[in-house]
Amino acid sequence: MARAHFKLKPNTAGIDYLLHPQILGTVEESVRADQIIPVVVLSEEEISAGPEKLWDTLHYLVDNDDVCTDEFTGIIVVRPSPTSASAPDEPLKIIVDPASDRSASVYHLSPGPNLLRQGEEAQLPSGPYFLSGRNLHQAWRLYPDDLDAFTFGLLPDDPYSPKSFQAVALQSWDGLARSIPVPSRLYHKPDSDRPLAGARVSVKDIFDIQGVKTTLSSRAWAELYPAATTNAPYLKRLLDQGAIIVGKTKTTQFATGAEWVDFQAPVNPRGDRYQYPSGSSTGAAASLAGYPWLDHSIGGDSAGSVRGPATYHGLHALRPTFGSASLDGIKIMSPRYDTVGIFGRSLNEIAFIVENSLDVTQDEDKTLPRKLILPADFFPLTDTEHQRLFDQFVGILETYIGVERVTVNLTQIWEENPPVHPHGAGQSLHEFMKKAPTLSLCYDYYHVSEQFRCGYREEFGREPFVEASPRHWWNVGANVTKHEYDMYVRQIGMFKAWFDTTVMRTDRGHLQDGIMFLPNGIAGPKYRDAIPEAPSASEGIDPQLLSPLLATPHLVVCFAQVPYESRVSGSTEYRPICAGIMSARGSDLALLRLVHEALEMAGWRADIDSGRYTYPLGNNSRNVDDGLDDKANQAETFIEVHIDSMAHGHQLPVDEL
């Protein structure tokens, strides 16, 4: 693709645009070579339907697209049918709105092949375009990245069959932010072969994208490695199904950094906009939480890199079943722990991506869980209001399924039913798993980054700059021997087998054997200007490590928001509240559908907003306007009281598990 693009100045309707360099066709009318003109392409059938229907069509294009505006409707370019002859020499003036006496000039696209596609799909979709001279180009809107969520935007070489990309580094009109290009939604229509057609997706800057660099938020990494020559297979799968990858989002440095030295941290759009953005899929979360024009966001998760940002940005998120997506072409921390991760403003959006991009069970398994498990090792939460809201969330699952929660104590179960292997004999669960999770992860992390460190020293004769946090974890991993690592891997395997046989089956691909609730996030404010804490290793099993150890899906559900008095804005702001649920390997879709149906039955709003508030503010215990009438609100109050009364589940003896 020619490394050239254009920015319209002055802009149209106060909006910045970019012209895709691919020429789609040529008009027969004379146009000055230096002119850039917004136009609408319509079919011969649409143009000949009469003024009233034509006006309805133009209204539809403007009302159903964020790229097309009224300014595009001043010139209509007629898309010829395959049997069309040449157009008239002079454009025809037609009245498109008798009430306002507005008119549009009609230009004609030259007959012949206009796209490198065959059959019916070769016809240009009706919608907004630009003429550059007589040449027709797609119109891409430039959105300002005022949250600093993106490393850069992306423009495909061929918008109809993208394989290679170029980075877009244009500044916004005011010069304060980079711009992210998006095509008209009218260009793409989903079908059975391309279900993701037109879906706008941001991806974390750890995925290789052909034609552009992967940075890992490290200047040293970007300095050492050239642009990628292939697309990561997971992204190729998205592209093949029609997804529009609009840009690469920022990650913490090497996925563990906290200092943001080489790149500035994204802005968390929730509340006062000065809340902690978490990591490492920071930009992926910020982009979806802040920009309504974005549909989906893809990150990566090792030990909470998607689930953590979801809780701080007020999003639903899924760490899917381990191995359900290829890790090739992704800069990972560990081949044992890493997965892709999916953010969504609705559970249905996540399910849609899962269905079309992951290798998980696709059947319509309607089996309900027989157990709702609450591990006492992680509860109660330290904040009583957070715990109360968490209990309400568990309660709607109890009501929907018709099963009360059971509280279990993993430590106690281990003591009463330890693994039969002699290596675990006489050790508590904490002692047995004290080092294995963290040190095995750090060992992998150190060794997957070894080629970078050696390559940089060899190429530049000096050490690369690395932030304190990744440097700390690399040092931890460097001190783990191969013998110790192999021992930790065996211990994790023993724990996994023990969990499956004594706590909850996780190997059957359905929900029948139960789901487990896990805490996610904090209830109070945490500000972005706080000095980063020194990195320290967690010991044993924590809620974020359980799913990676067991290779199971872990779903984060955002369901409430709580007030706090911001020291930044001086106003009452609201923080999102989330809960986690873990289920059996391969049951990702069944879990998503279960939670969606439970929320729907309870009348809880589950489609998240972008911007300051996670949900519209409401007068209920969750501070969410569920869109219910007064009678329904009274019913919800009854349900909440009922749920509170059920909040103290009974603890089952081990033999009932």
Please name the CATH topology of the domain at 142-357. Answer: Amidase signature (AS) enzymes
**Whole-number average pLDDT?**
91
Q: Can you identify the CATH class of the domain at 142-357?
A: Alpha Beta
Give me the Rg, rounded: 27 Å
Structural class: alpha/beta
Report the CATH superfamily of the domain at 142-357: Amidase signature (AS) domain
Main sheet: strand order: 11-10-14-13-15-17-16-21-22-20-18-19-23
Specify the overall morphology.
globular
**How many beta-strand segments?**
23
Count the DSSP helices: 17
* Low-confidence segments: 1-5, 115-122, 645-657
Proportion of helical residues: 25-40%
Distance between the termini: 61 Å
**What is the beta-strand fraction?**
15-25%
Structure, described:
There is one protein chain. The chain is α/β, with parallel strands linked by helices. Among the domains are: 6-140, no CATH class; 142-357, Amidase signature (AS) domain (Amidase signature (AS) enzymes), CATH 3.90.1300. Helices cover 28% and strands 20% of the residues. A 13-stranded mixed beta sheet has the order 11-10-14-13-15-17-16-21-22-20-18-19-23, sandwiched between helices. Strands 1, 2, 3, 4, 5, 6, 7, 8, 9 and 12 form a ten-stranded mixed beta sheet that branches. 48% of the residues are buried. It holds the Pfam family Amidase. This is Amidase domain-containing protein. Residues 191-368 form the Amidase domain.
